[in-house]
Amino acid sequence: MIDFNTLFSLMDLNTVLASLCWITAGIFTLAQKYAPQGKKPWSILLSFIGREINADIIQTQKEMSERIDALDKKLESIQQDMSDRIDALDEKIVNTDKKLDKNVAISARVRILRFGDELQEEKKPSKGRFDQALADINEYEEYCVKHSDFKNGITEPTSGFIKEQYQERLRKHDFSR
Q1: Are residues 155 and 109 in contact, defined by beta-carbon separation less than 8 angstroms?
Q2: Count of the separate structural domains present in the chain
Q3: Does the residue 101 lie in any domain?
Q4: Which sign, positive or negative, has the C-alpha torsion 82, 85, 91, 92?
Q5: Closest by Cα among 129, 103, 102 to 115
Q6: Looking at beta carbons, which pairs linking 95-101 to residues 24 or more positions away fall under 8 Å?
Q7: Is the dihedral of CA 32, 37, 40, 44 positive or negative?
Q8: Lowest mean pLDDT among 9-18, 24-33, 56-65, 87-96
Q9: Is residue 39 part of a domain?
Q10: Is there a domain that residue 80 lies in?
Q11: What is the pTM of this model?
């Protein structure tokens, strides 16, 4: 029979531990070959060691991911807010353009009426003044056609009078210089 005292006296603790490590490594290697996927001892051991070594990095990565998600949400909120503001500005620009067009039409109407008054006072305007008045009449009439809700009919008699006077003076060559 084996005398364990003699056997242990021949080995020191270091040799015993080294032998146990080699036996464990052999068992792990053998089990690695025959174990099903996901249950392989070396993979489990190395995964555990990797997780322990990289625990701080994994935690930092998780925190960074949460921060990025929060920033993404904030960015989406900012983009939506900017989109809403741009839409509001677009609407204001359209309204301002409409008001500007209306003011241009009203100014043309005022110039038409004023020029008609000058003609009725028998002032002798230049051909350039007539040309400007006719351009104002065209612009005003185009605006009225495009905007049926705009109050019209105010300049029709005056516009007709200006056109008649223009044709008459054109035939007679009766414009001031």
Answers
A1: yes
A2: 1
A3: no
A4: negative
A5: 129
A6: 101/143, 101/147
A7: positive
A8: 9-18
A9: yes
A10: no
A11: 0.56
pLDDT of residue 7: 63
Tokens encoding 126? 């230049």
d(C-alpha 116, C-alpha 119), whole Å:
5
- 17 within domain boundaries: yes
Say how far apart CA 101 and CA 49 lie, in whole Å.
76
Instruction: Determine the structural domain holding residue 24 and report its residue range.
Output: 13-53
Are residues 138 and 112 in contact, defined by beta-carbon separation less than 8 angstroms?
no
139 exposure class (CB count in 10 Å sphere: 0-12, 13-18, 19+): middle
Mean pLDDT score, 148-170? 87
Please, are residues 146 and 105 in contact by the beta-carbon 8 Å criterion?
A: no
Q: How far apart are CA 78 and CA 70, in angstroms?
A: 12
